[in-house]
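User: Could you check the structure of this?
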Amino acid sequence: MKTYKILAMSFLFGTFANAQTLDEAIKKTDNERFAAARTDFNALIAKEPTKADNFFYFGENYFKNDELDSANMMWTKGASVDPLNALNVVGLGKYLWYKGDTTKARVQFAKAATMTKNKNAEVIRKTAEVLTYAPIKRLDEAIKLLELAIKLDGKNPESYLILGDALLEKTPRDGSPAIKNYNLALDLNPKSSKGIVRTAKLYQRARNYELADQKYKEAQTLDPTYAPAFRENAELNMMFNQSNKAIENWKKYIELNNSTEARYRFATSLFSAKKHCDAINELLSVQASGFDNFYVERMLTYSYFECPGDDSKTSFEKGLATSDKFFSMVPADKVIGLDYKYKGLILGKLGKDSLAIAQYEIAALKDTAITKDMYTEIAKLYMKAKKYDNVIATYNKKMNGNPNNITPQEYYDFGKAYYFGPKNYAMADTCFTRLAERSPSYAISYFWIARSKYKFETPTTKWLAKDNYKKFVDLLKQEEMATPAYKSFTIEACKYLGDYYINSKEYNKVESQKYWNIVKTLDPADKQAAAFFASPHGK
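Assistant: Sure, the predicted C-alpha cells are below.
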C-alpha cells in the first residue's frame, strides 16, 4: 500500500511539474499541435480546477480542431466553475453562432460585454473573431470591435492580425488594408511566424508563388514548431503543382501534429499528387483510427485501381468493395461522374464487362467532361466481345457529327467493326482513310484501306487495292516484316502486288518477282510462291 501511495504521489508531482503555463498551451494550440496542447490543458486543470480561463482556451483547442461540441463542453464547464468569467460566456455565444442561432449568441456576447463593462480587450477580440471567421459574418461590426480592442490594448499583435483578416474579407481585391495591419502586428513582434504566414497567404492570393514560398520558409525558420507554416506551404505547393515539395511539408506538419485529421489531410495531398500507393497506406491508417467518410472511400477506390500492385486481382476486389461502400454512404448530390467511371474500370479489370459498361453509361450522362472518355471505354469492351454493331453505335455517339471527336486508334477499331460486323466496306474504307490522314506513317492503316477496297474490285479489271498495299509494304522496315504483328499482312499484300505486276496492264516481271521473293522468304513452304517461281514469270 505504501509503495502504491508513493507511486501515485510521484505521478501527480510529475504531472504538475511538467505542466506548462497557460500561454505555452495556447501557443501549442495556435501551432496546431492540438494533442500536445491538450496534455498541457489537462495538467493545468488538474492543478488549477477553478481557473476558468483554462477551460476557455481548452475549448478553443477543441474548436480549432473542428470539435465544436467538445469545445462547448469545456466552455460550459468554465462558466460553471466561474460564472463571472466573461471569456467562457463568449465561448457559449460562439457555439450558438456556429450552430446558426445568432440571436441567442448575441445575448451571450452582450452579457460578456456587460460583465466586463466593454473594457476587456481579449473578450472584445474573441467576440470579433466569431464575427470575422464564422460562416455567418458581420465584418463591419467585427472591425469596430477590433478597433476598440486596439484602443484598449495597442500592444497586442493579435488584434491587428484579426483586423487585417476582417478587412481582407471585406475587400478581397484590395490587400493593402490587410497588409498594413499585418505589418503593424510584425512591428510589435518581428519574429511572429503567425504574422509572416499572413503575409505569405496574401502573396499566395496574388498567385506569387516565389514570394509566398519564401515567406512560409521564413516563418518555418523562425519557429520550427509553428505547424500552420508547413500546412499552408503544402497547400501552396499543391496549387502550383509542386507535389513533392507539398508532401515534404505535410510530413513536417504531421511530425508536429500527428492527429487523425492531419493524417487525413496528408492522405488527401498524396492522392491529389497521384501518389496512389502511398495514399492507400495513409488512408488505411486513418480508417484504423476510427475516422471514415465517403471521401476516404472514394480516394481508396480510385487508388486501388491506379496502384494495383503485384496482386492486382486482390487490389481490384478491394477497390470494388470500397466503391460499394462509398455508394452506400455518399449523399446523392455528392456523387460525381468519376465515381461511376472508376467503378466501371474496376469491374472491367475483374472481367465483369457488362456491369462495367452500365457504369460507364451512367458516368457519360453524369459528367459531360468525361463523356467522350466513357464512350471510348464502352467501345473497347464491345470490341473485345466482338459486338461490332455496338462498337459502331458507340463511336457514332462519340463522334456526334464531328469526325475529329474520334482518335486515330479509335478509327482503327471503328473501321474493323464496320469490316467484320455489317461488312460495310465503304464505311470501313472511310474510317481507315481517316486513320491514315491522322497518322500518315502508320503502315497498318494502308493495309486495311487496301483490304476494304479489295472487296469492291475484280482484280483483273480494277486493282483498287494496289496503291495502298504498296504503301503498306513500303512503310515497313525489313525486320518488321517477319514479326508476328506484320508477317501475315505482309504476305497478303505481297501476293496481291505480285499478281498485279503480272496480270495488270502495268506488266513488270522484275517487280512481280520482288514481291513473290518476300513471300517466299517469310514462308518458304508457301504453295502459291512455289507455283509462281515454277511458272515462266518466275524464271
